[in-house]
Amino acid sequence: MNQGHSKDSTAESPLIKLTSVSHTFSTATGPLPVLDGLTISIAEGGFTAVVGPSGCGKSTLTRLIAGLMKPDSGEVWLHGEKVVSPLSTVGMAFQNPVLLEWRSIVKNVMLPLEIVAQGMPVLEQEERARYLLSLVGLEGFEDKRPSELSGGMRQRASLCRSLVHKPDVLILDEPFGALDAFTREDLWQIMHTLREEEPFTALLITHDLRESIFLADEVIVLSGRPARSQYVLPVDMPKKRSLDDLYTAKSSEMLAVLREQIKIAQGNTASASA
Predict the structure, then answer these.
(1) Helix 122-135, helix 151-163: angle, nearest 10
(2) Which CATH number among 3.40.630.30, 3.30.420.40, 3.40.50.300, 3.15.10.40 corresponds to the domain 1-87+207-274?
(3) I want to staple 148 with a disulfide (CB 3.0 to 4.6 A). Which of 64, 144, 173, 232 is the partner?
């Protein structure tokens, strides 16, 4: 197995590129550096997972890529253009689906199209939303309200909403973290279905090492705060994966490498934890 390397991620023909990015938050107790000279690249069509100690800046990374924040120093690039403002070409899904109760599931999924694809006829918007809902197993639930669905079903709808406008980049900030183990594994398999049917470049933030190797092409381990790219692990698994692939000797070896890297990163974590 390729054991990875401890240098910065350097994917060929990157769609996403961060160069020497640093960011510090102001707090009541003084400056809190979270990123320090972070340099990573993600190839177009790639799926990259980011893991690291709690509070090391993983969620900050997603907001910088989406253009919701600006780094104190360094640059963020998407499609060869510097990111300086929020981007409609980025879709985001979070741990909390935040669906609007007064809208049906299909109307929730259509919401981004109402904002970024205003020229698209409503019928086409609805067809697109219903198509995605069928891909994730929610056919027949399109006209239900969010409160009528389970947590896992709401998260499926959230994934559809993040993809409905055909974004170039899909950012997943621990979207499965609050779900039970069986629902989480079901959604992992649905992510592979979505990836086959919907072209996108993905960045996944997760604390679940099994999730990282099951979904991603590579796993970036961030150091303790302030974070740098500590280690990059190429995932040596088939493109089409089943849950059985998580129980092979190769997977066990990759997980052992990641666990060791997390221990190293935790040793570098600042004394004040977030």
Answers:
(1) 130
(2) 3.40.50.300
(3) 144
